[in-house]
Specification:
242 residues, mainly alpha, 79% helix, transmembrane helix, transmembrane
Length: 242
């Protein structure tokens, strides 16, 4: 019983660490660790990338994302869980930028195993975009708009789909302006529906995250109602536990 109680308290403490917002950076060791690990990871993979030009193109958006997060941090601090999810996505992107999205070691291994010419890591990252960015974007939208539950999930899905479309437009413009390097950056690999498939995978990732959050919200609501009923019953019958 004592171990169970300690475990419950520990889980509750960890939940507060990950979910709580408005923590000052100087008082947030987890966020400090996330930042240090990412900078170290990025710095190592910035050394001798496979294609320096493509690496620079891939890092433009990454730098913009980090700048936006830093500039808005004082006014819109996200939870550590949001920053952790963003960290995972940026690590995936940094890894792909080093090798190029068409030449990652994972893709080389897959090609030898399933005998395909297609590189699938870029598709995986597009799906992870919807899956990993869903929670941070929803957290920000609910804080700004006040949306809750169902509409917050639907709005976030729509927002991620819109971001995916904007990114594909940016890729198209880069391909037009940068010539062959831009075409390599797009990574069509002979698939005329590559952009549509990328957006579809981002949408699928967002929908999966929305279902996970919906289940969590439902369970949390059930436990809250159950706890409230128990407390009300105890107030009505204060001698039942004696």
């Amino acid at each position: 019983m004592i171990l169970l109680t300690l475990f419950t308290i520990g889980c509750g403490h960890l939940t507060k660490i990950f979910i709580k917002t408005n923590i000052k950076f100087s008082h947030n060791p987890l966020l400090q660790l996330i930042l240090v690990v990412f900078l170290a990871f990025w710095g190592i993979l910035a050394i001798s990338p496979t294609d320096r030009t493509q690496w620079l193109l891939e890092n433009i958006l990454l730098v913009l994302v980090i700048l936006v997060l830093c500039i808005t941090y004082r006014k819109y601090k996200l939870s550590n869980l949001s920053y952790l999810l963003i960290f995972v996505f940026l690590c995936l992107h940094t890894y792909a930028a080093h090798y190029t999205y068409q030449g990652t070691p994972i893709d080389q291994w897959l090609k030898s195993v399933i005998h395909t010419r297609r590189s699938y890591f870029d598709r995986f990252v597009h799906m992870m975009f919807g899956l990993l960015w869903f929670y941070p974007i929803r957290e920000l939208l609910t804080r700004i708009t006040g949306l809750r539950m169902f509409w917050s999930l639907i709005t976030t899905i729509s927002f991620i789909l819109s971001l995916g479309a904007v990114f594909e437009i940016i890729e198209m413009l880069v391909a037009i302006l940068a010539g062959q390097t831009g075409q390599d950056y797009m990574g069509l690999q002979g698939d005329v529906f590559d952009s549509e498939k990328d957006m579809a995978l981002s949408l699928i990732g967002a929908i999966i995250s929305s279902f996970i959050l919906a289940i969590i919200f439902r369970k949390r609501k059930y436990h809250s109602l159950h706890l409230a009923k128990g407390m009300a019953k105890q107030k009505l019958n204060p001698n039942t536990n004696k």
